[in-house]
Amino acid sequence: MQETRPPEHEQASIVLVGSFNPKIFQPAWFASQGLIRQEEADEANVQVLNNDICVFETGWFAIESVNDRWMLLSRATPALESLRDLALGTFSILRHDPVYKIGLNAYAHYTMPNRATLDNFGHAIAPKDDVWRPVLDDPRLLSLAINGNRTDGHVGAVRTKIEPSSKIPDGLFIDVNDEYVNNTESNSAEWALDLLGGEWENHRSRVASIREHVVSKAWGMQ
User: Domain residues for 185?
Assistant: First the structure.
């Protein structure tokens, strides 16, 4: 699905919750496994690396790993398939690592026609008059999170967060979190690999549909 009004800024992340050895996930390991080029590893900015945490970034992605959480985050405009392929390649090698949950996340900032449109949309999705104006002066929406059930047979939830953009003046930020919970008999990363390979396109279609709906509603508040 193509969005009618594409975002001005976009990022994506893949988050795995499980049990990991953070010290493995350093640039040299990714290069030795053929997952990134040696030049990328040599030029990577390693911020933290010890037994408990690893954080580094390259020109197009960042890795953050602690003992129970692993995150792959795009930088700048996301190369979505490359991000997915790097996660697949990583845990194809570490397929015996326990993984209990996966979060596929999409973050986008959109331009709005003007501040009044953004304010009108905020009042529409979080009415202020009856609840907040009696106790707050000029109440405004800072963040709204909505949780939805999965309808695709997987265990988990679909969450959408809406906030004013931190990057675009009077813009709109939309965060879609597609959460999947492991309900197989095995806690190995095998199920995560199957899910990433089989559900990625459905996830991206779901993200586009949610964002198209929200942004069209917002623009309708002019």
Answer: 9-17+98-219
